[in-house]
Each structure stands twice: as structure tokens, then as C-alpha cells.
Design a protein that fits this description.
heterodimer, A: mainly alpha, 2 domains, B: about 325 residues, alpha+beta, Alpha-Beta Plaits, three-stranded mixed β-sheet, globular
Chain lengths: ~475, ~325
């Protein structure tokens, strides 16, 4: 495939990096693998001894596993936002970060649903979902939506990588297996205009599909909670609230990933302050939207002051229960990013990343606060002598599996970065399509006009 | 008007169905103790013997093999099971709890019928509130089950098939009445129970990693017996019966369901949730016992706990 000078330079910057693993890289891998091993150990313990090793009990039947699940599906929105919306809007500056966003989407959509599996009492009966699935159950909606979303994200990532795969195929790697794999994956792409046109059109279609799909996935997830008769859950705004929270956290994670790659893969020339500023402003707007939803949700339930709703609210505002977590999740984690990004003087690559970290942590805590206090507040009084049935306390097993999930996320991300360039190598001039189209339309108009003229002339000839 | 009509048609039904119930052809004499005449002949059951002969055997001589499969999902034809709990008679003897646990091989912590201490407001008196599964006509738990492991039957009973349940616990969050219990770990039961032939109707043996709950004991109903929580109650606080036949019994006396609910102002607990329970409560008026007596069975620790955790609502 022929490349322009800019793309060639990028290829020669990334391809050698992908082949070698630095010392720091090895240390990181070892750390990640240790965490993953810890998770494997916890998983074995949970399978052998049963769910009794978790902190979950009859009232709090879903613990941090479900919080993790919502969290990971939430951050998968990074790809939906950047690749979907910014792609359709043809925003120029998105190109260097598009790949990071798409990898986040695929990896988190792989890891998120595994937490649901951890929550299932009978994993050996997983296939019953296919055998006996009932479409009335929101869980089946969830299964269908997430699997479609995962497949869609993988297709999108693949389509957006084909040009790079073709470039890598032609690059002389030391590791010969790479060329073979890239040759297979590049499906004979050689960059001729027809292939480019097809690819661009497919990408447009996929990004148009991925946006409603992403909205649907998180809405279904929210409905699992919203459709139950539970205080703090039974709310009509839950679906849009979850969607906004998801885009918020997705943008936050994208900023963090950008910072890490910029720093450790030396991408200063590709990912610049502009990217941080623009994404920061998107983060701020989403934060404001999220704050509005949060305010609206708690204000209405407080003003209506139904007994059950108030019980949950009191727990959130009680200093002995969840107040400090709630304060962090609903105030610090939302207002701080807004303030820091709003004031230009505070805006820097590091500060935007720092508030993104806070926002992402706050959103994890928020998911915890959505699930646990509500489940700790059944409609009938909690008259149980066993303290673990009244208060949920995540156990070591649950924490180990949580950290294993995060480590797995980083590890898969690292593998992706070693296999495809983290920044798209092959640059395609955008708008060229439009120019082509315009030319085509103009040509047609001209042709039609010529035809008309000829017809008129012929008529004139006949008349005379 | 419509109400009166209903009553009338129900009475007609009662008149027609009572003789049927007494002759008990094929059906199950639910309120066996009170209705069955002493001189009635014992029911014979046709059985195919080993050499291919059809012989009739006394029903009592048969060992009960629980109903399984599709039959356990259908329900007993013509029945509509209901329960009435008379709050005026409950003194937290907790016999319903222990009998139920005994019958279903539950560990002492797992209660399919729970007794709560309730107080509606500061000015009203506390009362004891036994709560089984309500077997709702609009069960939120059945709606959300992804694999149809929990289902509603024609006789009104909501059952759980523990061989189908995948343990997602969605039904537990969907049930507003905390009726469901999860089997967090393997429970030690008697040898007999551990090797019993599993049926959703008996819920024995329980299966780890799945959800269990009060099943209204349809296996007992098939034998013409009342559930153990009903017969176990020393005060006869729990009535069980068939709404179609309009008869409920607490083991010592039987009543017309409609009359009992009308006369004693029976109500649904949290009717506003729209679940349409099949368990009715009779308000705790003219009580037989002071609520304080309910503390007699409890340890000091439990007493303290209950006193501190009365939740004023409903």
C-alpha cells in the first residue's frame, strides 16, 4: 500500500515500538499478572466454597460485582462517543485518540459482563439463558443488547484499523509471524479508491449504528433497576441518568488513557494539549448534565418524601452510613472537574487528568451507592440478627476480583497496544468524499444541461 | 352492584362445589379434617401391577412421589389457593417458622415464613406480623425471571424450579416483600431429604446457588393436607384453603373465605404495589394476646434487637 510521507513517518515510529517490550513494560506486566492471579485465586475460592465467601446476603443480593459491571459498561462509552459522534460530525482533532477510545470500548465491554457471571449462583447453567430465555425479562434484554454492542464495537474497531493493518502488513518486521497475521487481517486492502470508498461508507454506517446501540445498552441496564419496586431505583429518569453517567465516565477514562500513553509511549507530538482541552470541555459539559440529573433525582424523591425513599436518602446523608461516600460521589467528583475545567487558568494536561481520575472514582462510588443502600432498605423492616444480612461489606474475594478486572483491563489494553498502533498511522484526508460527491453532482448537472441544450437545438432544427 | 353479584355467584359456586369437595372424586379434600365424613370409604387408586393387572389400592397405602416436570408447572386443576393470616391471634410463637424449616430441611437461619414486629405509627400498638410468600396474581418476581425458573400456576401458586434457576437473584430484588431466600452454601440435611426426588412442589432437597421461598406446600394439598405452618400454629392464626370452594381452614375450624374476609375486614399488605397477593390479613383488633408476650420466646439479645428495629410505616 502506498503511504504519504506523514503516514510513513508514523509507521516507522510505531511499528518498532510494538515489537519490543521495555523494562518498565515487563514490570507492569508482572504486576498486572499478579493481580490477575489474585483474581483467579478468588474465583476458585468462590466456585469451590460457593457465594457464601462474598459479602452478598439475602438483602444485598448484588454487591460490588454489579457496581463493577455498570462501571465497565459505562466507560465503554468512550468509544461510542469519540468514534461514533465525533466521527459523524467529522471533527478533525479526534483522529489521534480514536484508536484509544475504541480499544477502551472493546476491552471494557469484554470485562464488564464477566462480573454478572460472578454474581450468578449457578454458572453451570449459563446456557439456560439460550435454552429457556424469556423475552419478558430485562436480563435477556441486557444479554441481547450487550452482546450486540460488543460485536458492533469489535467490527467498528476492526474497520477503523484495516488501513493500519495493511500498512503493517507491508512493514518489514523482525517477528515474521506479525506479517502473516496482518496479511490475514488486512483482507487484501491496498488503498485503491473503491476500497477506500467502501471502507468509509461502512465506518459511517457502523458509527451511526453504534450510537443508538450504546444508548440502548445502558438504558436496559438502568431499567433492570428502574423497573423494580425499590426505593432509590424505581425512577423514570434512570435510563437517561445512566447514559449521561456512562458518557461522563467514558470521557474521563479516555483522558486518563491519553495521559498514560502520551507519557509512556512518547506521543507528545500526536496527543497534544488541544485534545485534553477539548475532551476536558466535553467532560465539563457532561459533568454539568450529570449534576443536573443527580440534583433532579434526589430533589424529587426528597420533596415527595415517601417513607421508603426517605429511608434511603437518610442513609446517604447519615454521617455514620454513607454521607462521606455520597459527598465524594455527588459533590466532589462532579463539581471539582467542572470548576477546574471551567476556569482557563486551572486548565492543564495534568489538572484535567487529575480531575478525570477523581470523576471516574466518584462514578464508581456512585454505582456502589445506587446499589447497596437501596438493597439495604427493603420495604419490610430489616429484622435480622445476623449483621452481615443488614450491612453489606465487600469481602477480600470480591475486592480481589475487582482489582483483577482492572488489571485485566490494563493488560488487554497493553496487548492491543503491542499489536496495533495506538494512534492511527494511515492518515486519510477527510472531506475528500464530499469533494468527490460535489464533483459527481456537478458533472451530472452539466451533462443534463448539455442534453437539454442538444434537445432544444434538435427541436429548433426540426421547426425550421 | 357488581360486588353483590360477585358474592352471589360465589355463593352459588360454593353451593355447587361443596358436595363435590366432600365426595372428593379425583380432587383433593383440602379441608380434610372438617369435611370428610367418618363413614366415608377410603379412596381407591388404580395401579398397574407388575404382571400387567389393573388393581385398586387404598390411597393411604401409596407412598407419595412428588409431581414433577410439566405437571408441577401446571397447577392443581380447579383450585385457587389462598391464605388468611389473623393478626389478632399471633403471639410470635414462631411455630410456623420452625415447622416450615423442618418440613423443607432449611437451616435455622433461613425462614420462608418470617415473623416481623410492626408498628404503624407512634400512637398505635405494635403487632406481630407473620409473612410467607404472597403468591401474587401479578408477581414481579415471575416477570423478571430470565429463564422461567419461577412461574405462576393455574392454582395461583408461584413456584421456583431449583433445577432451572440460574441464581441471578433478579427475582429477589424484584420481590417487594423480601420473600425470597438464596441458598448461599450447601446445607446439611438428613439422608432421606438429601436423596429425595426433587420437585418444585416439595422444594426438597434444596439446591445451592439457587433461590428458594415459601411454596404454599402444593404437595400437601395434593394429599389433602394443610401446610405445616398452618397446622403448626398453636393459636390457629393461619387459614389456608381454596378460593374456588370458598373454604379456608386453620386446622381446627373451617370458614368461608369470603365471609371471613368480609366480616373481619381482611386486607392486602401494601395493596398499592399492585401485586394482588393471595395472602390476606385480618387486622390485629380484639387481640388474644398482648404483643409483649411475643418476646417470651426470644433471647435477651433478640428482644433488644426487635425493640430497636420496629420500623414505623405502612
Amino acid at each position: 500500500m502506498e503511504l504519504d510521507s506523514k503516514s510513513t513517518r508514523a509507521l516507522h515510529f510505531f511499528a518498532p515500538q510494538m515489537e519490543k517490550i521495555s523494562k518498565a513494560g515487563i514490570i507492569n506486566i508482572v504486576i498486572m499478572l499478579l493481580f490477575i492471579l489474585g483474581g483467579v485465586y478468588a474465583l476458585v475460592v468462590q466456585i469451590v466454597k460457593g457465594h457464601v465467601v462474598t459479602g452478598m446476603r439475602d438483602n444485598v443480593v448484588w454487591g460490588i460485582y454489579i457496581a463493577n459491571f455498570i462501571f465497565f459498561i459505562g466507560i465503554s462509552y468512550a468509544g461510542a462517543l469519540i468514534s461514533g459522534i465525533l466521527h459523524l460530525l467529522r471533527v478533525e482533532w479526534r483522529t489521534p485518540i480514536i484508536r484509544i477510545a475504541e480499544i477502551i470500548t472493546v476491552v471494557s465491554t469484554l470485562i464488564g459482563p464477566s462480573y454478572i457471571l460472578l454474581c450468578m449462583g449457578r454458572l453451570d447453567r449459563l446456557h439456560y439463558l439460550a435454552l429457556y430465555g424469556r423475552i419478558q425479562s430485562p436480563i435477556i434484554w441486557d444479554v441481547l443488547a450487550i452482546s450486540t454492542y460488543l460485536i458492533g464495537s469489535i467490527i467498528f474497531l476492526y474497520l477503523a484499523t484495516i488501513r493500519d493493518l495493511a500498512a503493517l502488513r507491508d512493514y518489514p518486521f523482525k517477528q515474521k509471524w506479525r506479517n502473516k497475521v496482518y496479511r490475514f487481517l488486512a483482507v487484501n486492502f491496498n488503498g485503491n479508491s473503491e476500497q477506500n470508498r467502501f471502507l468509509d461508507r461502512s465506518l459511517d454506517i457502523m458509527s451511526a449504528i453504534i450510537i443508538p446501540l450504546a444508548v440502548l445498552v445502558h438504558s436496559v441496564l438502568a431499567w433492570i433497576f428502574g423497573m423494580t419496586l425499590r426505593p432509590g431505583w424505581h425512577s423514570t429518569i434512570f435510563a437517561p441518568y445512566f447514559v449521561v453517567a456512562a458518557v461522563f465516565s467514558g470521557t474521563g477514562v479516555l483522558i486518563i488513557a491519553m495521559w498514560i500513553f502520551r507519557r509512556y509511549f512518547h506521543l507528545e507530538t500526536y496527543i497534544t494539549k488541544i485534545h485534553f482541552n477539548y475532551l476536558g470541555i466535553i467532560l465539563m459539559i457532561l459533568g454539568a448534565l450529570y449534576a443536573y440529573f443527580t440534583f433532579s433525582e434526589y430533589l424529587t424523591s426528597w420533596y415527595g418524601s415517601e417513607t421508603w425513599e426517605m429511608e434511603v436518602l437518610f442513609k446517604l446523608f447519615d454521617q455514620d452510613e454513607y454521607w462521606w461516600w455520597f459527598f465524594f460521589a455527588a459533590f466532589v467528583g462532579v463539581l471539582l472537574p467542572i470548576i477546574v475545567i471551567l476556569i482557563p487558568r486551572f486548565r492543564s494536561i495534568n489538572s484535567i487528568t487529575a480531575v478525570s481520575v477523581i470523576a471516574v472514582l466518584a462514578l464508581w462510588v456512585k454505582r456502589y451507592l445506587i446499589i447497596i443502600p437501596t438493597l439495604e432498605t427493603p420495604l419490610l423492616p430489616l429484622q435480622d440478627l445476623r449483621p452481615e444480612y443488614i450491612h453489606y461489606q465487600p469481602t477480600l474475594v470480591e475486592w480481589l476480583l475487582t482489582f483483577a478486572g482492572i488489571a485485566m483491563f490494563c493488560f488487554l489494553f497493553y496487548l492491543f497496544a503491542k499489536f496495533i498502533p495506538i494512534v492511527p498511522v494511515v492518515k486519510v484526508k477527510e472531506g475528500r468524499n464530499y469533494a468527490d460527491l460535489r464533483k459527481m453532482v456537478q458533472n451530472r448537472i452539466i451533462k443534463r444541461k448539455i442534453k437539454e441544450l442538444k434537445l432544444k437545438e434538435a427541436q429548433k432544427m426540426q421547426n425550421t | 352492584m357488581e360486588n353483590e353479584k360477585n358474592i352471589k355467584s360465589r355463593r352459588d359456586f360454593f353451593r355447587k362445589s361443596v358436595p363435590l369437595a366432600i365426595s372428593a372424586i379425583g380432587g383433593v379434600g383440602l379441608v380434610a379434617e372438617s369435611c370428610q365424613a367418618a363413614d366415608q370409604e377410603e379412596e381407591k387408586v388404580p395401579v398397574l401391577s407388575q404382571d400387567g393387572q389393573l388393581v385398586y389400592v387404598d390411597k393411604s397405602a401409596m407412598t407419595n412421589v412428588p409431581v414433577t416436570g410439566q405437571e408441577a408447572r401446571q397447577g392443581i386443576p380447579g383450585k385457587k389457593f389462598v391464605m388468611i393470616i389473623d393478626l389478632a391471634r399471633c403471639r410470635n410463637a414462631r411455630k410456623c417458622v420452625s415447622k416450615c424449616q423442618e418440613m423443607h430441611g432449611l437451616p435455622s437461619e433461613d425462614e420462608w415464613i418470617k415473623v416481623f414486629l410492626m408498628q404503624d405509627s407512634d400512637d398505635t400498638a405494635p403487632y406481630w406480623f407473620p409473612k410467607p410468600c404472597f403468591h401474587c396474581n401479578q408477581p414481579p418476581c415471575v416477570k423478571v425471571c430470565p429463564v422461567g425458573a419461577t412461574y405462576k400456576r393455574t392454582d395461583g401458586i408461584v413456584l421456583v424450579d431449583n433445577e432451572r434457576c440460574i441464581g441471578c437473584k433478579f427475582c429477589m430484588t424484584a420481590c417487594p416483600y423480601s420473600s425470597r431466600v438464596f441458598q448461599w452454601n450447601e446445607v446439611e440435611v438428613s439422608h432421606e431429604m438429601a436423596h429425595a426426588h426433587y420437585s418444585p412442589e416439595t422444594s426438597v432437597p434444596s439446591k445451592v446457588g439457587t433461590v428458594g421461598k415459601c411454596d404454599f406446600c402444593p404437595d400437601m394439598a395434593r394429599q389433602g393436607k394443610l401446610p405445616d405452618c398452618v397446622t403448626g400454629c398453636p393459636n390457629g392464626a393461619i387459614y389456608f384453603g381454596d378460593k374456588n370452594e370458598d373454604i379456608v381452614s386453620n386446622g381446627t375450624e373451617s370458614q368461608r373465605f369470603s365471609q371471613l374476609v368480609h366480616d373481619r375486614a381482611g386486607y392486602h399488605f401494601m395493596a398499592e404495589l399492585g401485586t394482588e397477593p393471595n395472602v390476606y390479613y385480618l387486622p390485629p383488633v380484639d387481640r388474644l394476646f398482648d404483643y409483649e408476650r411475643g418476646f417470651n420466646n426470644l433471647t435477651d439479645e433478640q428482644k433488644e434487637f426487635y425493640r430497636n428495629s420496629i420500623v414505623k410505616k405502612h
